Amino acid sequence: MAQSSASKLVIISIISYIISLVTPAFSYHLGQNPYAQYCQGFYPLLIGWFPLLFELISIPQGKGTFDGLGCFAWLSNPLIFIAWIGISQKAKTISIFTAVTAIILSLTFLSINQLPTGEPGQNWSNITVNIGFFLWLISMVLAVLSANCLEISNKKSMSVSTRNEPGKTISTETRNGLIKIRVNLPNRATIGAESFWAKNLGNGNYQIKNIPFCAFGLNFDDIVRAEISPVSEIPVIKNLVEAKGHQTLRVTFLGIGTKEERLEVIKSVQTEYITYEGNDSDLYALDVAPGGDYGTLFSDLKALELKIILVVETCESRIEGSFDDSLN
């Protein structure tokens, strides 16, 4: 359920950000006016680049001020947008980095006492943050928490133990004649490796009997060569011997809370050629057997992606000679 938590947190983060746009972000005094005025959050979002540009021009001229440091807080806005996009693509590292950087930059706003208005002799003075600022800050903190949940959901993908076929559920734990094999995935630091149930064909060859959740360039029924690891009795996959024509797609559901609801979506695109594996997380792997229509399945899943129901991932090889994900 970690991926579900990530989805819920990012939704709350976006809602908090939107509310911050229509609530007072800070109060200020204009000129000699003794009464405080309030600035709604959408206004600094739209024109906040101006004080930043003003400060960037002033610094080389030796006219920069300590107040000007807070102008860089505006950059938190594009950074939080990038973090949200990264979370939707399950890019944990970049999402956390951009969200944390956004938090740091947002806090520089606390150093501001006055802001230029563009009018000679006119400044907003006595700047004091208000509820909108804190909602803005909370949205960034929630983005960090959401991105951090991506690591937990990746680990859960290792625990898949069933292959579901139309009208049939088979427990891999009860399959006779199958053994565990493993593929190392060093680029997936939070996982490190993925294991499969496989049929031992002899001479170091094995036939994969799971749909891969993390590896790329491997599919159900593929024959691979594996060797016993010197530090483990589990054979480690070295190379692909023969592809059997199966193709894999992986989907991560966004905001669909129950397993029954997720399965309903899967079954809506399922045919006699399509099987799937999944557990209680939001991540599912779909296998298209030879003769199945991969293109139609992909189009159907992309349509669901446009409705923000799920995110679909293709699983072709990313790195030549490896089953790992690329570092990009």
TrEMBL record:
Keywords: Membrane, Transmembrane, Transmembrane helix. InterPro entries: DUF4265. It comes from the Bacteria. The chain crosses the membrane at residues 6-30, 42-60, 66-87, 94-115, 127-150. It holds the Pfam family DUF4265. This is Uncharacterized protein. It comes from Solimicrobium silvestre. The lineage of its organism: Bacteria, Pseudomonadati, Pseudomonadota, Betaproteobacteria, Burkholderiales.
